[in-house]
Amino acid sequence: MTRVIGLTGSIASGKSTVSLMFDDFGIPVIDADKISREVVMPGEKAYKQIVDTFGESILRDDQSINRKKLGAVVFEDDKKRRTLNSIVHPAVRERMVERRNGYVESGVKSVVLDIPLLFESQLTNFVDKTVVVYVDEQVQLSRLMERDGYSEKEAYQRIHAQMPVKEKAELADAVIDNNGSKHDAYQQLESLLREWDVV
Ligand SMILES: CC(C)(COP(=O)(O)OP(=O)(O)OC[C@H]1O[C@@H](n2cnc3c(N)ncnc32)[C@H](O)[C@@H]1O)[C@@H](O)C(=O)NCCC(=O)NCCS
Ligand SMILES: Nc1ncnc2c1ncn2[C@@H]1O[C@H](COP(=O)(O)OP(=O)(O)OP(=O)(O)O)[C@@H](O)[C@H]1O
Question: What CATH number matches the domain at 3-195, 1.10.1370.30, 1.10.260.40, 3.40.50.460, 3.40.50.300?
Answer without folding.
Answer: 3.40.50.300
